[in-house]
Amino acid sequence: MGLPKVHRLKHWKDFQKIYQQGTRYSSSHLSLLALSETEPDNSLRAAATRIGISVSQKVSKKAVIRNRIKRQIRAALIELLPDLSPGWKIVVAVRPKALECKYEHFLRELKQLLVEADIINGHKREYVL
């Protein structure tokens, strides 16, 4: 099961824009790039937060392993989706150390990075594990 279509970041132009203009937040296994797409003038209706996952061949040469990591991150993001603020474009980039991670590690690190980026609603930084 994937992310809902509304929340998917698909086009390479969007990825490029986030890589160039977005703010980077890093942990030991993941890197999160975030770009707010809400403008002060159009604050009436914010678009859904869109998310993309990037796993390079530096992580593993085997597509099976890269796809397994993507599935685990996608499952963690689906669990965190109700807490996300609308109007963001996010790219989750995986670092080579992520081979040793399980689902729980990804969930914890993603939540920590999203709170650090102020994307999660209603959470303060000091309350994160």
TrEMBL record:
This is Ribonuclease P protein component. It comes from Hydrococcus rivularis NIES-593. Consists of a catalytic RNA component (M1 or rnpB) and a protein subunit. Its EC number is 3.1.26.5. Keywords: Endonuclease, Hydrolase, Nuclease, RNA-binding, tRNA processing. GO terms for biological process: tRNA 5'-leader removal. The keyword tRNA processing applies. Belongs to the RnpA family. It comes from the Bacteria. Coiled coil: none annotated. RNaseP catalyzes the removal of the 5'-leader sequence from pre-tRNA to produce the mature 5'-terminus. It can also cleave other RNA substrates such as 4.5S RNA. The protein component plays an auxiliary but essential role in vivo by binding to the 5'-leader sequence and broadening the substrate specificity of the ribozyme.
